[in-house]
Structure formats: structure tokens, C-alpha cells
Amino acid sequence: MNKIKTTLLALLLLLCTNLLMAQTKYEHAVLKYIPVLGVSKIIISYANDTKIIDLTKEDKKPDFNESVAQKQLNKMSEDGWEVYNTTNSNLESSFYYLKRRKD
């Protein structure tokens, strides 16, 4: 009887360990698009880094051109990033929340 309990406990621990290891881990980023005249830029915040992309004059026209953000999001999707949420702030900026699987 004791041997059966030990075996069942070992199997339970093994199952719990496998379930914990099987959880998918993600890294997250936030892309902020600021289309305000004179300040237009894209800021990408990662866990340990921030990247600022100043926009060219062509990208700034017309004002509030969301295709600029879409181009950057397309580049990031090629690297495995996917958008899982978006918000905006009174037409002053748009936020795109991204995640990708960790290796």
C-alpha cells in the first residue's frame, strides 16, 4: 500500500512539473504613435529598452496618418510580434500592445 502511495505521489509531482513547464511565456511591448505636429514620432517600449523613431517629413503628411504606425506594426509582426490590444488618447496618440512568444 505504501508503494502505491509513493508511486501515485511521484506521478502527481511529475504531472504538475510538466504542466508548469508547458505554460507559454511571452514578452511584451507597447508601440506609441504620436502624430502631433512638430513632435511626430513612434516610441516602442520593451521590458528593458525603449526605441524612438523620429518620422520623416513624408511620414508626417497628412496629419494623423495611421498608416505610419501600421508600417511599423507590419515590420514587428515579421519578427513574431502580434497586437493584442489598442487604445488612443484624444487623437493625440495611439497605443498598440504587443506580445510574442519567448524562445
What does this structure look like?
By secondary structure, the chain is an alpha+beta fold. It has a single domain (25-101), classed as Gtp Cyclohydrolase I Feedback Regulatory Protein, Chain: K (2-Layer Sandwich), CATH 3.30.1410. It contains 2 helices and 5 strands. The protein has helices at residues 2-21, 67-78, and strands at 26-34, 41-45, 50-54, 82-89, 93-101. A 5-stranded antiparallel β-sheet has the order 3-2-1-5-4, with helices on one face. The longest helix has 20 residues, at 2-21. The mean pLDDT is 82.
What is the topology?
Elements lengths: L1 H20 L4 E9 L6 E5 L4 E5 L12 H12 L3 E8 L3 E9 L2
Antiparallel strand pairs: 1-2, 1-5, 2-3, 4-5
Short description:
The chain is of the alpha+beta class and 103 residues long.
CATH class: Alpha Beta
Give the biggest beta sheet.
5 strands, antiparallel
Q: Which spans of ≥5 residues are poorly predicted at pLDDT below 50?
A: none
Tally of helical segments: 2
| Spatial sequence of strands, sheet with the most strands | 3-2-1-5-4
Shape: rod-shaped
| CATH topology description | Gtp Cyclohydrolase I Feedback Regulatory Protein, Chain: K
Distance between the termini: 43 Å
The counted number of beta strands is: 5
Note the beta-strand portion: 25-35%
What structural class do you assign from the helix and strand content?
alpha+beta
The CATH architecture comes to 2-Layer Sandwich
Order of helices and strands: HEEEHEE
- Helical residue percent band: 25-40%
Radius of gyration: 22 Å
> How many domains make up the 3D coordinates?
1
